[in-house]
């Protein structure tokens, strides 16, 4: 089928506009507002059913009117009236008194053209274009005098019936009484059928939700045929209040009558007798608009036109976040869905409208955010679509409440109570700044004409449409596969026809990746073996879309063509299925000159896939088309070269390379273009794969590598390179060189040395690089994912690096990571001599380098603590590193001391981190010297003599904190431990108490406990026990009282406890001079800025003083300045004395001084309270030691502190935990 065959498709004429108000009324009718006609009856005219007959098994045909003789015969074959499911339960005579003859014993037929069934449908207002109704004969009822009947209401959900039709036959002699009474919701109708009942037919009908009864027959006999009205195509359960439901269907049908396609009426009697028109149904086109044999006007509407017939209803109930199928709707929502689902000309979907609102969670103020959707956001997005079969679909449709909402908009746009809340923390979870993300979910029912479903699916849900087509093929049962394939083929044909009518609109609306729509359609053509549809699609791919209003003609969006590799593969498979001859001309259109520049890669992949399926001739034809359409093959050259290699066309390759790479470089741009092309080729995985499978591939790669090196070498020496600015030597070609070396390394594999033909060309390039750049190349080669590793290249570059370093060509600091990775590689290379040479050169440059010593420390720290490097070094290499560290420490100490000795304040500033890192470097070397004792620590003694007490303290604590918890702490290394102990002795031997801050006291105690040295404890306790200031005592005392860990340490260590006792005794001795403060007017520490006489007054015991001024203004300024200094508690009085003297009296404020005294007294009492607790703790600790220790005289380490106190060292005593008492202040 050619695409041009469908070019006559045009847009259908729209028939009407939907009245949304009328539609809203139609779906929301209420029973109280209607006078429904629930029952109906009439006497048929004389000429009606003249030839009707009733046939009874065993009796034969019964003539109408029925004679009394025949009536008696009917009685002989009739049975008792029964009821219930299956009608097998006899009924009491009090409810029913009648006889019945049931199917299949009774048959009724007529040959008249009088359509009594259309009359029934008209009077019951059955929407024949909406429901499919079957009228089925069920039984013949016989009534005699006294007979009566009461209907048991039928359950429509079980029986499928919604109404009853009764045809009363004329009987000889007629009857009296026997009227039919029908009741519905409190309303009653009585239909009398006795007049002329001996010669006329009566027709009655009513709905099954009504109560029906027959009044007693006073005289005569009655024969009635009973028919059921059965709804054959309900989409939901039959509603109990069926009349009201039918009224709604009729109203919807009237409002949306222009949505209903042309229908036909077919009526059949569902029995074995001759048929009369009874069955009302719709043709297949109305029930499934996707199944068109041929549509004369298939085309895409504009989105605006299609959306004019899309409407939605906002559901009344709230359903939260979870998806809700139709059968789980509640209340009026369920009734609405029933109405819409049972209209076969309407496509109904349930969908979700989601709103988000963000609210700051701020406790100080209300911040609820907007309570409704902003007007600019009135165009709402709908998601979570489900069709009438509860199958998930996806439509990219935005609804406009102002023009498409039917009925009340309810809470669609209001944001009151969220359905889901999420709290977002700005920072960590402890941060007070939080945002509450509120989610609001609103359910809507969306409708549109079913005859437009296919176009809407193509325009807004093409992906879902294709999914349904593919899934139907995947899930088709063997017995239905033929029908499924036929239906999918029809949809495929229509979809391609729609694309031919407006291809740009279809592909742009698809919302898929480039080529995805084409690929899926091609795969379906292959699976369905749909030759005509596939050829039509290929022809469509070769067409240029029509120009739009902006005149777009040849850009990439103006044609589809071969968009990607998968489309190329699908075309090759289609060719295998149907042959090349039919598609050759179509392929040629896809490889036109203006397309090949934009779709070169997928076009070449088509050539490749044709080769893979042994279509060599077809591949060559495609190759010729490519060559003729695209003379400049520079872009995507790798794919083109790989195809030539597969074709074995060495001559074309030689010509191609000669034309491109051997042409002289006229300017910078030309040379750059050549290099870019070579870079593409040597980095192509496709080219590399061919090198392992063909000789031509291998030779091609070797030629390409040499071309790249030659171009790089020539460029580096060519005057054209002056065009490159702001680049260092070698920086311009470094990426290309790295790529080329990687490629050569892969070619050479593990061979060493590397082929000299490469190295002779590489060497001049490497000579132009700095050492850091050479190291970068090594690191990049090491970190590349190429396998096997390029050992030959790496060794060659390593030797170049070492030789350059020996020539003193390291002006700046080398990157630490590069050095470490180079060492790691050389260590693995097993070339120990090269490794040692490299380490020696690195060490030399680190010692003499001018960069910060911190970076030097970090380098060797990372080197030694890297198990992957250090553990692999031999002892000689390790000694090189360790000796370098020691030398660096000496150089570093000289620099620090020079700064400390400098007279310039700016130059003399040395940070604690510098001192700390210098010592850490010393420890680093000593810890790894294989356990050898050295005297290297003496180099640090000169540094310690230069440090101040605060610097000494910081160094002591920093080293303790960094090393005490380490698995390899300094206690395990005598060189380090001895030096650190000497450092601590130097610090504790000085007046350290004044520089220790509150937050440092605990670490001082921990350090002493960790060191476990008697001399250090003695030095420490001597200084602390002599403290005179209560504030200093309080600092140390509070730390001991609050730290359970320190208390435990004092108990566990005899030397620590001895120091504790010494401190306690010293403080007790000083406490004898402590007295409770008394009230005084003195403020010894008072400071009055700008008034020295007042400062002296504040510190004296005087209560008042006087000042004299010559003017009132001066006195007031003085008084105001004092009032500003109200914190000193002054009262100021200004009194003029004569005309030239003003007296200013300053008096101390008593209440202020009392308050000061009370604070001093409170602080003293608090201190005394803590001191008492300290003494209790002393006693407690002493009691525990005496009660839990086997006392033995001290040997060696014990020492007598006092004539009255003797401290004993414990001998194998069990460690006891101290009972913790809350001593916090």
TrEMBL record:
This is Prolyl 4-hydroxylase alpha subunit Fe(2+) 2OG dioxygenase domain-containing protein. It comes from Daphnia pulex. The lineage of its organism: Eukaryota, Metazoa, Ecdysozoa, Arthropoda, Crustacea.
């Amino acid at each position: 089928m050619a695409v041009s065959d469908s070019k006559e498709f045009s847009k259908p004429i729209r028939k009407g506009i939907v009245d949304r108000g009328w539609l809203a009324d139609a779906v929301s009718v209420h029973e109280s507002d209607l006078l429904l006609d629930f029952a109906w009856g009439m006497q048929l005219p004389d000429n009606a059913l003249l030839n009707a007959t009733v046939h009874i098994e065993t009796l034969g045909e019964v003539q109408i009117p029925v004679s009394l003789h025949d009536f008696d015969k009917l009685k002989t074959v009739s049975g008792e009236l029964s009821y219930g499911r299956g009608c097998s339960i006899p009924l009491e005579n009090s409810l029913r008194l009648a006889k019945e003859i049931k199917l299949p014993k009774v048959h009724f037929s007529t040959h008249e053209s009088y359509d009594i069934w259309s009359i029934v449908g008209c009077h019951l207002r059955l929407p024949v274009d909406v429901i499919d109704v079957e009228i089925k004969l069920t039984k013949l009822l016989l009534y005699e005098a006294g007979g009566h009947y009461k209907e048991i209401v039928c359950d429509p959900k079980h029986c499928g019936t919604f109404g009853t039709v009764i045809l009363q036959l004329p009987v000889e002699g007629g009857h009296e009484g026997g009227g039919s009474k029908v009741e519905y919701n409190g309303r009653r109708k009585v239909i009398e059928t006795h007049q002329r009942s001996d010669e006329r037919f009566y027709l009655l009908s009513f709905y099954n939700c009504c109560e029906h009864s027959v009044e007693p027959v006073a005289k005569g006999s009655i024969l009635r045929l009973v028919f059921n009205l059965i709804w054959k195509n309900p989409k939901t359960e039959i509603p109990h209040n069926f009349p009201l439901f039918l009224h709604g269907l009729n109203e919807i049908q009237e409002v949306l009558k222009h949505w209903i396609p042309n229908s036909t009426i077919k009526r059949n009697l569902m029995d074995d007798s001759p048929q009369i028109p009874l069955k009302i149904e719709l043709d297949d086109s109305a029930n499934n608009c996707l199944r068109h044999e041929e549509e004369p006007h298939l085309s895409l509407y504009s989105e605006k036109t299609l959306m004019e017939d899309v409407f939605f209803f906002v559901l009344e109930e709230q359903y939260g976040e979870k998806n809700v199928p139709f059968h789980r709707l509640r209340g009026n929502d369920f009734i609405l869905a029933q109405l819409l689902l049972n209209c076969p000309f309407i496509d109904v979907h349930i969908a979700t409208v989601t709103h988000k609102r963000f609210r700051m969670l701020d406790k100080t103020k209300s911040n609820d955010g907007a309570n409704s959707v902003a007007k600019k956001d009135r165009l709402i997005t709908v998601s979570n679509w489900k069709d009438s079969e509860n199958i998930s679909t996806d439509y990219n449709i935005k609804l406009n409440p102002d023009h498409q909402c039917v009925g009340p908009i309810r809470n669609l746009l209001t944001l009151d109570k969220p359905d889901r809340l999420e709290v977002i923390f700005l920072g960590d979870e402890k941060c007070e700044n939080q945002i509450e993300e509120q989610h609001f979910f609103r359910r809507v029912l969306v409708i549109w004409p079913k005859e437009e479903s296919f176009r809407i699916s193509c325009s807004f849900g093409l992906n879902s449409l294709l999914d349904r087509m593919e899934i139907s093929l995947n899930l088709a049962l063997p017995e239905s596969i033929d029908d499924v394939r036929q239906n999918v083929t029809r949809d495929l044909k229509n979809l391609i026809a729609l694309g031919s009518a407006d291809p740009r609109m279809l592909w742009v609306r698809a919302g898929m990746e480039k080529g995805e729509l084409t690929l899926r359609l091609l795969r379906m053509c292959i699976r369905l073996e749909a030759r005509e549809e596939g050829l039509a699609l290929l022809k469509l791919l070769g067409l240029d879309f029509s120009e739009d209003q902006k005149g777009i003609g040849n850009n990439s969006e103006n044609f589809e063509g071969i968009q990607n590799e998968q489309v190329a593969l699908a075309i090759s498979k289609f060719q295998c299925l149907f042959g090349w001859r039919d598609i050759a001309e179509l392929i040629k259109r896809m490889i036109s000159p203006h397309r090949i520049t934009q779709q070169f890669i997928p076009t070449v992949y088509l050539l490749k896939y044709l080769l893979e399926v042994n279509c060599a001739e077809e591949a060559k034809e495609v190759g010729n088309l490519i060559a003729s359409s695209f003379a400049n093959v520079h872009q995507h050259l790798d794919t083109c070269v790989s195809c030539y290699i597969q074709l074995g066309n060495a001559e074309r390759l030689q010509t191609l390379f000669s034309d491109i790479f051997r042409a002289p470089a006229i300017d910078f741009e030309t040379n750059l273009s050549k290099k870019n092309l070579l870079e593409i080729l040597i980095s192509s995985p496709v080219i590399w794969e061919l090198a392992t499978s063909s000789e031509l591939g291998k030779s091609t790669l070797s030629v390409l590598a040499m071309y790249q090196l030659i171009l790089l070498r020539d460029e580096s020496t060519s005057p054209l390179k002056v065009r490159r600015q702001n680049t260092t030597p070698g920086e311009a070609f470094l990426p290309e060189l790295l790529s080329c070396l990687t490629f050569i390394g892969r070619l050479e594999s593990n061979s060493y040395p590397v082929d000299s033909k490469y190295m002779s060309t590489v060497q001049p390039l490497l000579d132009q690089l700095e050492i850091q750049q050479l190291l970068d190349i090594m690191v990049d080669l090491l970190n590349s994912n190429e396998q096997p590793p390029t050992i030959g290249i790496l060794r060659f570059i390593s030797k170049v690096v070492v030789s350059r370093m020996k020539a003193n060509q390291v002006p700046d600091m080398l990157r630490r990571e590069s050095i470490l990775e180079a060492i790691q590689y050389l260590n693995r290379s097993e070339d120990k001599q090269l490794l040692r040479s490299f380490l020696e050169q690195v060490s030399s440059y680190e010692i003499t380098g001018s960069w910060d010593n911190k970076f030097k420390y970090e380098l060797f720290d990372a080197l030694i603590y890297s198990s992957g490097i250090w553990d692999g070094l031999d002892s000689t290499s390790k000694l090189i590193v360790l000796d370098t560290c020691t030398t660096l420490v000496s150089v570093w100490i000289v620099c620090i001391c020079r700064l400390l000795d400098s007279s310039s304040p700016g130059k003399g500033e040395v940070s604690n981190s510098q001192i700390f890192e210098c010592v850490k470097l010393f420890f680093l070397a000593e810890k790894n010297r294989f356990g050898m004792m050295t005297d290297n620590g003496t180099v640090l003694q000169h540094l310690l003599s230069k440090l101040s007490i605060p610097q000494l303290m910081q160094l002591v604590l920093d080293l303790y904190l960094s090393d005490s918890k380490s698995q390899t702490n300094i206690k395990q290394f005598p060189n380090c431990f001895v030096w650190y102990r000497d450092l601590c002795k130097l610090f504790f031997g000085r007046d350290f108490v004044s520089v220790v801050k509150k937050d440092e006291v605990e670490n001082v105690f921990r350090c002493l406990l960790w060191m476990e040295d008697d001399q250090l404890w003695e030095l420490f306790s001597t200084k602390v026990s002599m403290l005179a200031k209560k504030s200093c005592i309080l600092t140390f005392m509070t730390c001991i009282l609050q730290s359970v860990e320190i208390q435990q340490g004092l108990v566990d260590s005899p030397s620590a406890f001895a120091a504790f006792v010494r401190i306690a005794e010293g403080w007790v001795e000083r406490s004898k001079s402590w007295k409770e403060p008394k009230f005084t007017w003195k403020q010894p520490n008072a400071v009055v800025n700008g008034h020295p006489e007042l400062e002296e007054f504040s510190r004296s015991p005087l209560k008042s003083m006087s000042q004299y001024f010559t003017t009132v203004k001066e006195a007031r300024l003085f008084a105001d300045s004092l009032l500003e200094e109200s914190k000193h508690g002054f009262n100021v009085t200004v009194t003029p004395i004569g005309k030239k003297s003003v007296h200013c009296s300053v008096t101390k404020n008593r209440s202020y001084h009392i308050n000061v005294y009370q604070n001093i007294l409170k602080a003293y009492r608090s201190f005394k309270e803590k001191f008492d607790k300290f003494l209790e703790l002393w006693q407690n600790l002493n009691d525990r030691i005496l009660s839990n220790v086997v006392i033995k005289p001290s040997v060696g380490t014990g020492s007598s502190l006092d004539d009255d106190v003797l401290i004993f060292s414990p001998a194998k005593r069990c460690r006891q935990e101290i009972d913790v008492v809350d001593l916090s202040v």
